[in-house]
Design a protein that fits this description.
2 domains; 26% strand; 24 strands; Glutamine Phosphoribosylpyrophosphate, subunit 1, domain 1; seven-stranded antiparallel β-sheet; elongated; 28% helix; alpha+beta; Rossmann fold
Length: 483
């Protein structure tokens, strides 16, 4: 369904469980909660008491891949596990070989990995490894990390991981499973989120805290940027948490460059990422959007505020609250009903079917919109094709006016850190040379406004404005792009 809704597509969701007899089941529920981060494929790998690795993965949603409950109870046995939801950023999306987790048996035992992010120097590292005799089974950049660990000349396993991670560039949040350890790591800029929680005596590492919540686990903290966190068995009854730094100097500090799109669109509103509640940030974005770009009814009647469900729901709440602060008579309404039952396999082979794609995803509540000034709050516009079809659909309700408000700046550049946009030429901002008036004409709305980069960052109230990567809006890349 990603082809029907014109949004940036997320990278992946990862989970790791250590020290629980139902590790596979916890991973399954966690991947359910992280389904929004990737819908192409899913996989879970477990490790049992005899250091045997068991894996099950496949194309499709979590519920489709693990439709047989016996897979979780009989096949994926063990008290440690890692899991992965996939949306491909590198590697062929239709290849089963590219479905994570990946694993190898090397000189120090078994080793498995699941990765969220995107490496910017994967091509050169892969070429070097192949020249040295490495044989790759996939086209994914994640396998590069696996080879670097396995081929490291360090004698200690943690040092091997550190050695490998010191060679890669880009965005990575990782879970690595060995015969006796669960290792979690983040890149030094902290671009992608990663958190750790506790469930009884067990630990859970996940991309977002919603995967902790579904398992009734208690959130402990975020894995720090540049941190390698190791969970290991001291003996049969005790577990130990150790923390290492990617840097030679333990107290080295790199500037944080969190992906701001995690707050705008990717993460679930009930999650906490980068130390802040996503719902809170989206409401703040909506409030600032209203204060900067309010809408009045030309006849002094009530303005109707609607979201494009589901990602902009709480942003629309914030926008309506902002209008009230300006003493504008407005009401938040449900103007669009979203269907959640389409499934990933819907195909629109003809032009007619492509045009009807938005109607399959959304339906309008005509009584709410008819003869009203309507403000549509959305989080982003990528190509603009879906937005145009959505506005056309809304006009069937015969509203008085339609105003579009976007809670992010214009997307003008590609992302190289795990977020998937179309080519730079396909972005609507570049098609119209960032001219909002021309984009407004194309979408056929009465007005169109975006947040500026400065206003967007001002909504990040719990953070310094320099804590975020804004490359897709500004073209300023915190990690050099050489490939």
């Amino acid at each position: 369904m990603n082809n029907l809704i014109d949004k940036p597509t997320c990278n992946c969701g990862i989970i790791g469980v250590f020290g629980h007899p139902d590790a596979s089941l916890i991973s399954y529920y966690g991947l359910h909660a992280l389904q929004h981060r990737g819908q192409e494929a899913a996989g879970i790998l477990t490790s049992d008491q005899n250091s045997n690795f068991n894996i099950h993965k496949g194309m499709g949603l979590v519920s489709e891949v693990f439709s047989d409950p016996k897979v979780l109870t009989d096949d994926l046995v063990g008290n440690s596990a890692i899991g992965h939801n996939r949306y491909s950023t590198t590697g062929a999306s239709d290849s089963r070989k590219n479905i994570q987790p990946f694993f190898v048996n090397y000189r120090l035992g078994m080793l498995a990995i699941a990765h969220n992010g995107n490496l910017t120097n994967a091509k050169s590292l892969r070429t070097k490894l192949v020249d040295e005799g490495a044989i790759f089974q996939t086209t994914s950049d994640t396998e590069v990390i696996l080879h670097l660990i396995a081929r490291s000349r360090k004698t200690d396993q943690i040092e091997q991981v550190k050695d490998a991670l010191s060679q890669i560039q880009g965005a990575f949040s990782l879970v690595i499973l060995t015969d006796s350890k669960l290792i979690a790591a983040r890149d030094k800029f902290g671009i992608r989120p990663l958190s750790i929680g506790k469930l009884g005596g067990a630990y859970i590492v996940s991309s977002e805290t919603c995967a902790l919540d579904i398992n009734s686990a208690t959130f402990i903290r975020d894995i720090a940027p540049g941190e390698i966190l190791v969970l290991s068995n001291e003996d049969l009854n005790n577990q130990k948490i150790s923390s290492y730094s990617l840097f030679d100097e333990p107290n080295s500090v790199f500037p944080k460059k969190h992906c701001v799109f995690e707050y705008i669109y990717f993460s679930r509103p009930d999650s906490q990422v980068f130390g802040s509640n996503v719902d809170k940030m989206r409401r703040k974005l909506g409030k600032i959007l209203a204060l900067r770009h309010p809408v009045n009814d030309k006849d002094d009647e009530k303005v109707i505020v609607i979201s494009v469900p589901d990602s902009s729901n709480t942003t629309a709440i914030g926008y309506n609250s902002g209008l009230h602060k300006l003493n504008i008579n407005s009401k938040l309404e449900i103007g669009l009903i979203r269907s959640h039952y389409i499934g990933r396999t819907f195909i629109a082979p003809t032009q007619h079917n492509r045009e009807i794609g938005v109607k399959i995803k959304f339906n309008i509540v005509k009584g709410v919109l008819e003869n009203k000034t309507v403000v549509v709050v959305d989080d982003s516009i990528v190509r603009g094709t879906t937005s145009k079809q959505l506005i056309k659909l809304l006009k069937e309700a015969k509203p008085k006016e339609i105003h579009l408000r976007i809670s992010s700046p214009m997307i003008t550049h590609p992302c190289f850190y795990g977020m998937n946009f179309p080519s730079k030429e396909e972005l609507i901002a570049n098609k119209f040379n960032s001219d909002i008036v021309e984009v407004k004409k194309y979408l056929e709305v009465d007005s169109l406004e975006y947040l500026s980069i400065e206003d967007m960052l001002s909504a990040m109230t719990d953070h310094d404005k320099n804590d975020f990567c804004t490359a897709c809006f500004s073209g300023s890349y915190p990690i050099p792009i050489n490939e």
